[in-house]
Amino acid sequence: MSGFLKLLFRNRLAAMGALVLMIILALILIAPLLPLQDPDVTATADRFKRPFADGHLLGTDHLGRDLLSRLLWGTRLSLAVGIAAALIAAAIGSAIGITAGYFGGRTDNIIMRGVDMLMAFPYILLALAIVAALGPGLMNALIAVAAVNVPFFARNIRGVTVGLAGREFIDAARLAGKGHMRIILTELLPNVLPVIIIAMSTTVGWMILETAGLSFLGLGSQPPQADLGSMLGEARSALISHPHTSIVPGIMIFLIVMSINLLGDGVRDALDPRLRSGALSRPRATTLVERTGDIPARTDDLLAIQDLHTEFHVGSRIYRAVGGVSLAVKPGECLGVIGESGSGKSVTALSVMGLVASPPGVITGGAVRFQGEDLIGAPYETLRRKRGDRVAYIFQDPLSTLHPLYTVGQQLAEAIQSHHKTSNTEARAHAIQLLSDVRIPNAAARADNYPHELSGGMRQRVGIAMALANEPDVIIADEPTTALDVTVQAQILSLLDDLRRDRGLAIIFITHDFGVVAQLCDRVAVMYAGRIVEEGQTQAVLDAPAHPYTRRLIACVPELGGGRRELAAIPGLPPLVDDLPPGCAFAPRCDKAQATCRTGEIALAGTAPRAVRCLYPEVTV
Ligand code: ADP
Ligand code: MG
């Protein structure tokens, strides 16, 4: 809740809206306590007094009634009616929408056609017709305004509910034997509620206007009772001669509607979970760079990540996801990056091409050199030309990275054509060639399949084919086999291995599985809490791990047929990167930690290519 408020008030306009609304609410709430004159007492001798006349701060109207008093009491009434109408419309409309969306089929059809019939009438005519039938009066105006807004909520909420009703968690609730009513109340409603609140906060202002409109026409509040609409209506005849009688309620309506709308927009933005971690703005095309300190000198590696620092700035918190990582690959080499979930592997990989979402991501130090050229802070166009062309990515979940509405052949062709000018037929031929390169049987026919028609293993091969499309120099594979079963994983690994031997590809292979590293990688770097804690030739690290963390990671891998050895899980959890302990981040979980491990900076030391960041390593390197 406090997080929501913080986010809401970071939006200045919403904060301003809230402030104005608060002041108005406070004024009308204490109206009975203020020394105001009776709003309905007429005094013909005092007609049309100007504002700031003695005894009448805002002047008087055509019957000599005090405008300030009428304004506050009128605002009270208008707000109450508008908000009540919004609540009623939201409750009835949402109930209709949820019922139609949840039950579907014929129920849905009958209900929604009824709603459509209501929607087919012009809005204001319908409201007028309802008031005409019920007779003028504020209560009837309220009913009319609520009624004409029911279809809006019903349609909106039905749409959301239909999407949710087919989801697995609703099926799970059914399987658990819950009844319709309980599913609707405990599973659907909490998911729909934010949408209802958002729809309401953005329509309250509109409903206040509609009520004012009806009162203006004399169909809402009846004299002498004041509301904002009827005040405007009564002032109409004196609009030119005594404009203050119109301006006073006019400004109030403007302030109320404006502040409610600003606040409503702010609420909508703050409730959207996708905006929660970032500021309320669109992500930039490349990661924000705020480098301090020296930029490391160039090396002759193909791709070198040098002392990279990537942070997430969320509010006043700083998450140090990557705290000084250096990695390098040469052509034809495969480097494994291994670590528990949350150790900063993905953020390191995404930083290379400036793909970390900004805000909240910021690269605060280091360099990423591709063939010597520093890519950190490079112009967007430079990065765009390299993305997918010289440096390609393979991600964990291919179903979410492939577009569901295009065939895989079209998507491969697009990947080729975004970097090279080729005809459509050529691109398609190339796409089919790529599919057969990654050993998809019957590639020509498969090219016309949509992603959902392929199995998980095949989709991952399409992902690899897409990464290969422009014959990149480096492939960064972020847990590409984690979602696959073991046999498919073995095939994909041997495919990647062949590709790098045939084409001289450099691969950075991110995983949390030492078994996979052993199969594929020449070298391995172990990450913990955003830093490299050990690196070296794969075999050397496997044979004699130097860092206690590496040793324990290896101890977690079961040995096929090895039998006797006990699998040892690592106790505790990785530290939070916004609150890293001083010294070694692994010390709290380490059985060998001494007092010295908990203070000061511990350097990565050893003789290349072997290095370890530990004061008491298992073996000296
Ligand atoms: P992994 O090693 O599992 O790939 P990541 O690189 O995805 O880990 O994440 C590294 C750290 O960065 C994690 O602690 C994660 O909580 C943090 N992090 C990632 N994205 C964000 C974000 N948008 N805002 C705040 N923290 C983030
Ligand atoms: Mg990851």
Task: Pick out its properties.
binds adenosine-5'-diphosphate; 49% helix; five-stranded mixed β-sheet; 22 helices; alpha/beta; 12 strands; seven-stranded mixed β-sheet
**Distance from first to last alpha carbon:** 51 Å
Q: Please tell me how large the radius of gyration is.
A: 33 Å
Q: What molecules are bound to this protein?
A: adenosine-5'-diphosphate, magnesium ion
- Helical content stands at 40-55%
Describe it.
The protein has 621 residues and is an alpha/beta fold. 49% of the residues lie in helices and 12% in strands. It has 22 helices and 12 strands. It has helices spanning 2-10, 12-29, 67-103, 105-119, 123-134, 138-165, 168-175, 180-216, 228-235, 244-271, 273-276, 345-352, 380-386, 398-401, 408-417, 424-437, 443-446, 456-468, 486-503, 514-520, 538-543, 548-555; strands at 288-289, 303-314, 317-329, 334-338, 361-370, 373-374, 391-394, 474-478, 506-511, 523-528, 531-537, 611-612. The strands form 2 sheets. Strands 7-8-9-4-10-11-12 form a 7-stranded mixed β-sheet, sandwiched between helices. Strand 8, helix 19 (486-503) and strand 9 form a beta-alpha-beta unit. It starts with a helix and ends in a 9-residue tail after the last strand. The mean pLDDT is 88. The protein binds adenosine-5'-diphosphate and magnesium ion (MG).
